[in-house]
Design brief:
Phosphoribosyl-aminoimidazole Synthetase, Chain A, domain 2, 60s Ribosomal Protein L30, Chain: A, alpha+beta, seven-stranded mixed beta sheet, 25 helices
């Protein structure tokens, strides 16, 4: 072991590791001495933005955390836990793996899937479904195609081999993501609420085990890597990208599930960001205890690994387990059965300090509380200022846009655009049926719905965010993201329960980027309070940008919302597809002459400067309530929200599953392009059979929610204002094949 690693570190070394000079002084004050290199490296990862949320925690604390189903609140454990009744709970969370995926898309995305699933089963829950939210740059660029193919294959290969279905998600493209894609992975699992495993260390004298895979040099300082800009030199950071093994993770899952049935566990935590460092410090701080850890007992893949390399490695498929003293053999036998490491590497102490040893020599001694989120880690309130573009966008006037002569040409162009066209090229690489729980593979619905076997219930889940809206107006755009998630849940027939978030933004030291972040938090709070969907936790990912010729170019602000809903009666699952020729088509909700921030305006007319689309939170809420009532009362036979691409896209998406068409009439009081392609919020298309028409009308009149008869379902023609827009199978051909053609061309 190099003696220089045990010498007092220098401020230059601290800065090279990602700390600020003033933070190095803070560490010296905490320790009462100058830290050595290993200790400085420990603080560098634990005080990184990725682990400490030092630039976001003060605003995150303002998010609503209380709700009717909450069992574990944000920050209390590895993931949130909500009550789904009958003694069962749902553990769910979303996290980013953006920076690794930008450099090595396959492993970056694969290990993102592995990490989020470990967060779920470390709590004793069995993962039952996954979603993902992906953002890429211009699809015509070769690098974008390389990233898309690598990310999708990484997600598919890991998830398929691990055996958890991917039941939904979203994929979007914009030039702002050209260098820095976003890869946000969501996982949900079910649990007997009495058997939850806590990420807390307790009981001085209890042994500490590392279980799972060996520790290697992959992923060293990955947390610090994720807390800085991507530049032209970032390729040299490839060791910061972890390497995943889904088959090892499957073994780890089954061993953990078996272990959870014993009384041997005191606490357990996934080794994700910052590896052994994070799990030892966080578990100790949570239990107000300390640990002594022998690093030479950690199974390693490479010889002669240095202490800081072992501590900072983010090798995958590993967990830290605190075991009841005297029950070590139970743990060893279970993990030996599954052919996994289970090595005793330390002991819980009453010192509140973490002491690390190598070959009998102490290499680090740090107080646990000083390293963790909400403890001694710094908390900053950054300056923020409104960017000039915000007021400029508000000046947009719809009258400056000339309505195209042929709206059929527009319609065909829209359904072929990468943000709207079918994502089948992506999802066909995912296994949605493994586990035989997915209810929406062949029954298309606005949310992914998963059967809870042995009950009459199901879980609905979705991930949503239109980052163009958020860029135009962070507060309104984020309210829309929450509202769209709730709308998707409602259209499936379920009741929204809670959210998790993945907050993807630029550099927090940039006042304009931070203004976007603050606006998003305010909008999220308002919408979550309205829908009674508290925030259970999630992930903040700053530094999503490129540095080009010395200038920072941030991605669109992207606060991805993952939402869980409870379908009390799975027989009430509502699908989005037209059912029968002659069914009436109604639009529930208000509409305005508005094309702001629409796909039509931005990518057909190439006008990027406009405000967020029309949105009213109270109207939105009322629409959701009446849609849920209509589903419960069996008044409708299809429901689909109006979102990207506007009403026309919603109608053709309802047409495709059964190859049925529509004949509708637009409102002569507003522009036809706005009626068809505008993306004003708070609208749902529903269909009503002839025998339910009177009861539907009675219900809607009593509800006081605006509704409009659009027309009826046809055998296959697409007709708008008596103009023939073609046949459904022609449109389906365009819609289904556009994305694949762009990626393979």
């Amino acid at each position: 072991m190099s003696e220089t690693l045990q010498k007092p570190a220098t401020v230059e070394q601290a800065v090279d590791l990602g700390l600020r000079a003033d933070e190095f002084e803070m560490i010296k004050e905490i320790l009462g001495r100058t830290p050595n290199f290993t200790e400085t490296a420990i603080y560098s990862v634990m005080w990184s933005e990725h682990c400490s949320y030092k630039n976001s925690i003060l605003w995150l604390k303002t998010l609503p955390k209380d709700g009717p189903h909450m069992l574990v609140k944000a920050g209390e454990e590895n993931a949130g836990l909500v009550d789904i009744g009958d003694g069962m709970g749902c553990v769910f969370k979303i996290e980013s793996h953006n920076h690794p995926s930008a450099l090595e898309p396959y492993q970056g995305a694969a290990t993102g899937v592995g990490g989020i699933n470990r967060d779920i089963f470390t709590m004793g829950a069995r993962p039952i479904a996954q979603l993902n939210s992906l953002r890429f740059g211009n699809i015509e660029r070769d690098r974008t195609k390389w990233l898309v193919k690598g990310v999708v294959k990484g997600i598919g290969d890991y998830g398929n081999a691990f055996g958890i279905p991917i039941v939904g998600g979203e994929v979007a493209f914009d030039d702002s993501y050209n260098t820095n894609p976003l890869v946000n992975a969501f996982s949900a699992g079910t649990i007997d609420t009495k058997k939850m495993i806590s990420a807390t260390a307790k009981g001085p004298g209890n042994p500490v085990f590392i279980v799972g895979s060996s520790t290697g040099k992959d992923g060293i300082a990955g947390a610090a890597f994720a807390s800085k800009d991507i530049t032209e030199d970032s390729a040299s950071d490839l060791p910061s990208v972890q390497v995943g093994d889904p088959f090892m993770e499957k073994l780890l899952l089954e061993a953990t599930m078996e272990l959870s049935e014993t009384d041997a566990i005191v606490g357990m935590q996934d080794m994700g960001a910052a590896g052994i460092t994070c799990s030892t410090c966080e578990m100790s701080a949570a239990g107000d205890v300390g640990m002594e850890i022998d690093l030479d007992k950690v199974p390693t893949r490479q010889l002669n690994m240095l202490p800081y390399e072992i501590l900072l490695s983010e090798s995958q498929e590993r967990m830290l387990v605190v075991v009841q003293k005297g029950k070590e053999q139970i743990v060893k036998e279970i993990f030996d059965k599954w052919d996994l490491h289970a090595e005793e590497i330390g002991v819980v102490t009453d010192t509140k300090r973490i002491r690390y040893y190598m070959d009998g020599e102490q290499v680090g001694d740090v107080p646990a509380e000083s390293l963790v989120l909400g403890g001694g880690a710094p908390q900053y309130e950054r300056e923020y200022s409104e960017p000039a573009y915000y007021q400029e966008f508000k000046k947009f006037d719809i009258n400056t846009i000339e309505q195209p002569e042929s709206l059929k040409v527009v319609a065909d162009a829209l359904i072929a655009m990468p943000n709207i066209a079918s994502k089948r090229w992506v999802y066909e690489q995912y296994d949605s049926m493994v586990g035989t729980r997915t209810m929406t593979t062949n029954v298309p619905s606005d949310a992914g719905v998963v059967n809870i076997k042995g009950t009459n219930k199901a879980l609905a889940m979705t991930v949503d965010c239109n980052s163009r809206y958020v860029n135009a107006d962070p507060e309104v755009g984020t309210m829309i993201a929450v509202a769209e998630a709730a709308r998707n849940i409602a259209c499936s027939g379920a009741e929204p329960s809670a959210i998790t978030n993945c907050l993807n933004f630029g550099n927090p030291y940039n006042p304009e980027s931070y203004w976007q972040f603050v606006g998003a938090i305010k909008g999220m709070s308002a919408a979550c309070l309205k829908f009674n969907t508290p925030v259970t936790g999630g992930n903040v990912s700053f530094y999503n940008q490129s540095v080009i010729n010395g200038v920072e170019v941030p991605v669109f602000p992207t606060p991805t919302i993952g939402m869980i809903g409870i379908l009390e009666n799975k027989n009430k699952l509502m699908s989005l597809d037209f059912k029968d020729k002659g069914d009436l088509i109604f639009l529930v909700g208000n509409y305005k002459e508005d094309i702001s921030s629409s796909e039509y305006l931005s990518n057909y007319h190439d006008v990027k400067a406009s405000p967020a689309p029309y949105f009213d939170l109270d109207e939105e809420f009322e629409v959701h309530q009446v849609v849920k009532e209509l589903i419960q009362a069996d008044r409708i036979n299809a429901a689909h929200d109006v979102a990207d691409g506007g009403l026309y896209v919603s109608l053709v998406e309802m047409s495709f599953p059964r190859s049925l068409g529509f004949d509708i009439v637009t409102d002569s009081e507003i522009r036809e392009d706005a009626f068809l392609f505008g993306e004003g919020q708070g609208r749902v298309v529903v269909t009503v059979s002839e025998d339910q028409e009177d009861l539907f009308l009675e219900h809607m009149v009593n509800s006081k929610v605006n509704f409009t008869l659009l027309g009826h379902v046809t055998k296959g023609k697409l007709v708008v204002d008596d103009d023939h827009y073609g046949f459904v199978n022609e449109a389906k051909e365009i819609y289904n094949n556009a994305l694949g053609s762009m990626l393979e061309n």
